[in-house]
């Protein structure tokens, strides 16, 4: 080291780390949409994107992120600071940037292997952690039976307190959103295009109504080009990942809806389907899901309410879900699909049982946890 370089380092110290939010944007873009290694990278860097940036040229980063992401990580111009215009544009448009460590990042997505590291949201992101999110999907060209079924089922679920999650697309996605809006209930639209666009454009008015009492969310920043059809396929995994249960209203045997079903099965989400007569080509996929046992048959909303912890007689009020405390988020992150005792959960979370009990009580009151006989808890 020369005397001059020593003096510079002594005077100015080490180079400061970039803004953590910019590091999240950098890491998300470097891994790419729906990366199956996202969870592995988060485990390796301890949820710290700045650490990933600092270690981008190491063998450890390459092993965690994969060869392709490792090459992108060190490519010229790919730096956190390069994403500042994205952040500035989001702020100018009123788009909320929700990285993995944000309080409103949906806990449901932390349990899938290909979670997005950053989400973009308009409206109120607090609904992303509502306790009864129900995905509703179906044909983009439904027949009158499908349209009426989506309205009836969607309105009944919304009245009972479910938050409808769908893809803001033509056809039954739009019908399901409209059903919730008609009940003055929150609903979540999941985008397959950049957050500053609405597709189809004819749904702009519907989007505004959704944002007034719900939110629109996606994983593509404003101004991004070149996403194509793949954006909608990746969007389907977010619908399945966010929802506690997925309902297929009407679908052909070969359709994008079936990709959402496949994601729901991969994530362990229960699938329901609305039957129709065998002569309806638009419902052949829905009927086949029931016939094959891949989906439970739903005739009315009441069929789903008890598994969702809802009641038609006492619907949940359509008000903003209270924000989760750090302790509540920790407990929910430790949850599995099986019932556990207080002591088992305390050991899993690294908490004392006395400290865990009041947290579980708050989660039970908010509808996220149900206590079973024998003081065992199941997470809803």
Automatic annotation (TrEMBL):
Domain annotation Smf/DprA SLOG: ranges: 97-307
SUPFAM superfamilies (UniProt xref): MCP/YpsA-like
Residue ranges of domain DprA winged helix in the record: 315-375
PANTHER family membership: PROTEIN SMF (PTHR43022)
GO biological process terms, semicolon-separated: DNA-mediated transformation
Organism: Candidatus Faecalibacterium faecigallinarum
InterPro entries in the cross-refs: DprA, DprA_WH, DrpA_SLOG, WH-like_DNA-bd_sf
Protein name per the record: DNA-processing protein DprA
Annotated gene: dprA
NCBIfam families: dprA
Family: Belongs to the DprA/Smf family.
